[in-house]
What we know:
By secondary structure, the chain is an alpha/beta fold. Helices cover about 60% and strands about 15% of the residues. The strands form four sheets. An eight-stranded mixed beta barrel has the order 10-11-13-14-15-16-17-18, surrounded by five helices. Mean pLDDT is about 85; it is low at about 1-5 and about 65-70. Bound molecules: ligand C2E and magnesium ion (2 copies).
Amino acid sequence: MPRAPMRPSRLHVYIGVIMAAGLATFAVSVVATPWDQVLELSPLWAVAFLMLSALAGEVRPVVLHVSGTEKRSLGTSMPFVLALIPVAGATTAMIAQLAAGFLIAARHRIPVTKLLFNIGQNVLMVAVAAWVYAAIAGTDPLAPGGEIGTRHVAALLAGGIAMVVANQLMVSAAVALAASRPLLHLARQDFGFLSLSQLVLIAVAGAAVDLAHHGLLGLVLLGAPVAAAHVFAAMGARHAHEARHDQLTGLGNRGRLGDELRAALSTSRHRADAGPGLVLLDLDNFKDFNDALGHAVGDGILREVAKRLVLEAPPCASVHRLGGDEFAIVVLGGLSETQRVARAVLASLATPLAVDSLELLVRASAGVAVAPLHGGDAASLMKNADIALYHAKLERDRVSTYSPEFAVNTVERLQLLVDLRAALHERALHVAYQPQVDLATGRTVGVEALARWNHPERGAVGPDEFVPLAEDSGLIYALTDIVLDAALADLARWRDAGHELRLAVNISARHLSDLATPSIMRAALDRHGVPASSLVLEVTETAIFTDPVRADLVLGALRQLGIAIAIDDYGTGNASLNYLRRLKIDELKIDRSFVRGVGGDPQDLIIVRSTVELALALGLRVVAEGIEDADAGAAVRALGPVIGQGYHYGRPMSASEIDLRLGAEASTPALDRR
Ligand code: C2E
Ligand code: MG
Ligand code: MG
């Protein structure tokens, strides 16, 4: 995974310069310090107190949570180091600052390059403060100051501000070089974050210097406001953190996402390559998980998904939760980088999540929008990534990048959804039946029920268009009810007329993850007085893999009732036959893409032949879908006792056409319709 671009050479030169300047400054200071004056004029107890306080301020820094996993803390050594400048001279202050720096290094086991940089940085920031202080107060920066007046305190405050600014600039420059980002922007970001707390600390330094000349008690009493500052800062930071973060996952929330997008947009203006990119991610069928397994498991899923996303997102990306099952990722990169991140995070969900001893396969869809291509501000990026996400859900491409046509399409689809809802409400859908033929005898042994919709304005709308719409919106339950009721009524009629037929009905992923499906099927069969053994439910491999654990339960219960299960479009998913066999299915429908060419294409014939042989050996019934001509029919018939379905044997037709067909077959028993 490519990291943020590094330029080690320039960064290392910079670190070297800071360190060399710091060491030289320190050496000169040590040599030039009038140590006899320091020893004589500095109150020993005050120096000891300030030094200890400086060290304590780094042992117990104020912890500011910045994100769920990453912590940022603020040491409080600065005011005491600052106070040491007038009390004991700049060199003593440098020694205190260096000691505090080493303490931090030891606590965090920081790498050597950073330690070397810190040494230089620590000396230089004190030197800057001392120089500004001495210039304003009119004293020698290296000697202790003696009596302290208002002018000295004011000078010290100015020195403190200079110290904070110098420190931030040195650090921001290092980060800017490491991450190739503009210095000014970084410096501004950090100043905003730290400036208020630093200013409070500088004021503490002023008070400490003043009190140092009035005895130890004053200094000790100063401990109280410093401790209070610690507590309040920590509380404030926690509240600020809570306001910007999602409680459940610790990720940034919608507000923080907006800030981050705006910040990224303003930096990217300085960059030649495009960006930032926004990935919106939504879990598929999360509501079903929540409903069936309870909210505790639902929460567990969200936490686990958050972990996966954070783990998979590269350093140039940050992950947020927008609420519900929606996540967002800001990518500091252009279109291809953002698409890569989107694909990678979706792929990270391909292995099941462990939640409460359950292994759950949670899928997601993602929409991508990238500045400036798909919007120049945060609001339009959000809107367009949302449209792309909606598109990804409808088209099931999983990752979909915004395109202006989507907006039009989306409106059209929403309209179609409204119309479909109305059609279902009025039960305006009807069912066509496609015959399934025993290839050995040419007789119709079954029919597949296929939903048909005549749209009042658009005419016939194909199931490939409205079934996904129904699946995504939950209307699929109503659709299946209508198809099942109409088809079972027709089947009951055919049975009464003496025709033994199997009826195949297509069901969707949603039905497989709904534990109520078996009892709904049972009730429908009872209503029409049809035996369960006449019903075949067709499911796809993809539908099973959406939620394999519950699919297994539901399929088991359906078979228990005596209903047969067929795997539809076999060969287009990636299930192994061995896996399917463990699910105890009854029938395999080989997808028409393999069957179509079987009369002429030797490759297709090899695939179909081996599938037929294996399926028959496993005791499954085999249906070859999409037999379009006599050659394909003959080729499949030669493979064994297979059932054929396809235009060659009959297109999907109305119930009355099936009546005629069955009647004709009954009166011509020897008819060879092969
Ligand atoms: P499917 O279950 O694989 O249905 C077979 C599809 O193949 C039907 O398309 C049928 O008209 C078509 N077909 C049959 N023989 C041939 C042939 O020889 N050549 C070619 N090129 N195509 C052939 P249809 O009716 O458009 O249905 C498409 C898909 O819509 C179905 O695929 C099924 O997945 C879904 N569907 C249809 N009705 C329902 C329903 O009531 N519920 C659900 N959940 N899905 C349905
Ligand atoms: Mg089917
Ligand atoms: Mg099929």
